[in-house]
Amino acid sequence: MTWIVKNLWLIPILPVLAGGFGAVARQRNRVFAASLAIGSMVLSFLLSLVAMAHVYSLTGQGTAAREVFNFRWFEFGNEWVSLGWVLDPLTAVMLVMVTFVGTLIFIYSLGYMAHDENFTRFFCFLSLFAGAMLGVVIANSLLLLFMCWELVGLTSYLLIGFWYQKPSAAAAAKKAFITTRIGDLPFLLGVVWLYAQSGTLLFYNGGSGAIEHSALTALVAQTTSSGMAVSTAIALLIFCGAVGKSGQVPLHVWLPDAMEGPTPVSALIHAATMVAAGVFLVARVYPLMSASPSPVVSGVVATAITATTALKVVAWIGAITAVFAASIAVAQNDIKRILAYSTVSQLGYMMLGLGVGGVAVGIFHLITHAFFKSLLFMGAGSVIHGCHEQQDIRRMGGLRKWMPVTFAAYSVGMLALCGFPLFFSGFWSKDEILHSAHGWSVSQIPFYLGIVGALLTAFYMTRQMFYVFFGESRLASASHSTTPPNAPNDTPHESPSVMTMPLVILAACSVLLGIIGTPAWNAFHAFLQGERIAVDFARFGENGILPVMLASSLVVFFGLALGWWLYGRKPIYSADQPDALAALHSQLFGVLENKFFVDEIYQATIIRFNGWAASASNWLDRRVWSGGVQLVSQSVLGLSWFNRFVDANVVNAGFDAGCSSATRGARLLSHLQNGRVQNYLRVLGVALVVFVLFLIWGSKG
Amino acid sequence: MTGTSYRELLLLALPQTVVVLAGLIALALDLSLFRNSTNRVRFSAGAAIACAGSLAAGCCILLSQTHGAIQTFQNGMLLSNPLTHLIQIALLLLAVLTILLSIDSTFTDHIGEYILLILLATAGMMFLVSTEDLLLIFVSLELLSLCLYVLTGFNKHSVHSAEAALKYFLFGGMSAAFLLFGFSYLYGLSGSTNLVRIAAATEGSVMDPLLMVAIVMTVTGFGFKVAAVPFHLWSPDAYEGAPAPAAAFIASASKVASFFIFAQVMVLGFAGTAGNAGWNVRAPGWAPLVAVVAALSLVLGNVAALAQKSVKRLLAYSAIAHAGYMLLAIVSHTQQSIAALLYYVLTYALTTIGAFGVVAVVEHQTGGDKLSDFAGLSRRAPLPSMCMLVFLLSLAGIPPLAGFFGKFYLFSAALAGTTASLSLLWLVILAVAMSAVSLYYYLQVLKRIYVEQPPADAAPIQISILSQIVLCLIAAIIILLGCAPNLLLRLIQNALNAIIA
To answer: Among A687, B6, B114, B434, which has the highest number of CB atoms less than 10 A from its own CB?
Structure first.
């Protein structure tokens, strides 16, 4: 076992330690906290590169190179609870992505949070988050993964509510925490069930792990009372956790609200890493998801994935989420909310990719999305920063002139997100998903949903671009209506280079990453599967690749053109001007603007029911149970009153009569407790005798 | 007696010899070289010598472990095996911690003597844990006890200290007399002073009244050492009157050694006369007797602690309660429960030493150890307050601290006893209920520290860096052993397996 496998734990521990030291640092030690956090992330990044190189040197053998390190944590009855970590291509790719994007966002935060008085706390939380996320990535035990998963949830809560003085931020933090917990409960049940069935929570353990062949065969063979295979049931329970964390329908409601947090948080947690943890979880337990009764010959890489029940659910949820969220994004006016719904929609694509095409398809989109979405968020942060905390796109406009670097980078991110053909990474990753969906054996509907989603994506991003960067600046008109005027510099300004440099780097990555995932040279796919990496242009000609590419390109062009027709043709002149889409069909726009009323539905059903149950419990507690308690306590009181009466009038009277004075009685009492050693020794002697008698009595009886 | 190899004897007793030598050197240097130095310098020098001596003794132990795993001299007169090594190293560590925590104290000018006494007591304990012979047990127990009596009365400026020492001495003397009396009966019954032979000779003769008396006397003697009810009466007075570091030493290191030898004598020496304390399978023997003592300690220790105003007295009653928990393991006396006992007593000793360290800091600054003196401590001394939080929560058995796993293993070992399963359920239920009670008084202290406002004229408390480091170190070990209990438990189990095999 090589050094890097043994010491893989260093990668998450370094940021955690940085967070710990940051937590005890004084508030004014800004440089210390920031340099500690960034330094630890850079170190983790370098270690991740080493890990990546190590895995890369082992690829090409046909199966994924996988090394694990397991150890026993503590004994529990006759069982050992084991933890461990695993290094395989999936881990390596995720490690590099998280640490690289994380490092850039940490640097970006230096500029963005420069004026915040809780700068130190921010970096402490951020490092803690990074450590927990990296822990999720390397975990080889479902238990360790779950613990880090919860830590991730906690830090996300802390960071969304970072500006806890704002009631909306505090509420959003609470909402995020509770909503994801709803998903985590079935996840925990799945974990416990898996442990009960297979006796281990290690993923890989030299053939005896929970998602290795022998355990899976046993799981598939058993059925639940409803006739479902146990493996499917557990997989679905675990998927619930992923639904909560990755904001899939119906638990997507927290993610847009989470935009109340600082923008670097949105970029790191709610675009690039944490929300991707759900997708990653599905990828990690993929053997469990795809376990089917028919014997799978190991070693043969199945190009057509067997559509198991679990995978069907994943694919359907993903497809529905993709379109659902994209349609809501069309009618939002907050720059970060648009991106948030877009994130939900893209996460849906990833789930769809996992469901129909396997690990590599979904994870490739995860990686490319992490780059361009964090780019977009950081661009949005730069815009907000430049516009004096203005987030409403109707009150921006014309920023192209003031912020050229941000504009250029943002355009790259936007085109990548839309999937603009050939030159942007988003095109290749999305195209792979669509192609897999096209070839899915179960149904063609997810494919068409994906196409519609792509159209909507291109449309709402074009809308946003025109609102924010083109036309005339509408910022001045805002100042008299909503925000007080910032007198000295009312004009937008470009952000400092500490913020724009990460943007440029990410923009470059957003373009270049596409190269490793084209059909001709599908290096990413091959790397994850452990195959040899080869160039094969003939693959363009294979079943339906070119038509699908063509179709998705056309859809993107159509979406862009539609956006231009509605929003770009005539420049937007006033912030209060009604939306062009609203002018066409105001009712539909209203529904979309109110996010299909999902929040309201939840408010009216689940939350109201919960409130009703709480007040019913309250009533029961106060009237019924409390009545019982009162009854008991009253009777005790009565008894004690009676006691006192007897004490005062019978016992005390007799006692007083017996003792010549009260002082003598008190002396008698204190005599027993006065700490006199003679008494102590007397007790010793008495105890001796009593114990001997006790033993003799015991042996007689 | 021919054939006695003095070389072998010296080799086996080398660690103890080194410790005693270190103490004598510390005394000699203190009286000669450092005669005119300040107390602080004298204490630092003495502590350095003591640490060096303990380190050297520890190295001796580790080296002898590499020679041969199990050695015995004169049929168990002196032993050397992995278990004794483990306990001896733990005792050395506790002694070093005690000395390090007392460097700042100002209760005495007789620093050389103080360090010598602690090291002599340590040597006594090291002998105590490495023998199976009644004579050596008694002699080393007396060496330990005499040192502790003197340490209790070491604060000559305080009347309480002298009073406590006298009480401790009188009570201890009486108990020692009982113990010796019991031992003499044992010798009379078996014709041997070796525990294993005594067990062979008394096997199955539990009805013998002489043996019963011997059992009661032995339990009395050791019950005094571990402060179990009704032999506990000395401990609240002694803890309160003694200087805090001395109290810490009595509560930690001496507890480890006493519990070890108590278990050893009961399990080895009375192997055939245990009886059974189970509610459904009662059988006469020492187990029911110890069970009664345990139950009394649990109830009285925890309940009496509720009413205390002095933190040292509170810790004394909590020590009585903890003795009750640990006696549970002796009652069930399986290999698993002995492992649990050792884990418990070692982590408990560390925790107590830390708690007394914090008490010493407060006492040094405010001149008292009343609960009210702790008010608002978290604002005046954040780091020691944090450590106190860890110590008290560990004593209360809150995960993920070492105290939780100690209780967990202890209770599960008691439940998994040898004969009828769950026969000790009544005692375990009592212990769990009582540990819930204990949370109240531990939280009382923490409430004073964290919730209440400090007195208006309170200044931040000055604590030396060394004390802070030692306290933090202890707290870190407790957290570590709580998160990874296996680190210590595996050592104990390996050692137990080695002697049984």
So the answer is: B114
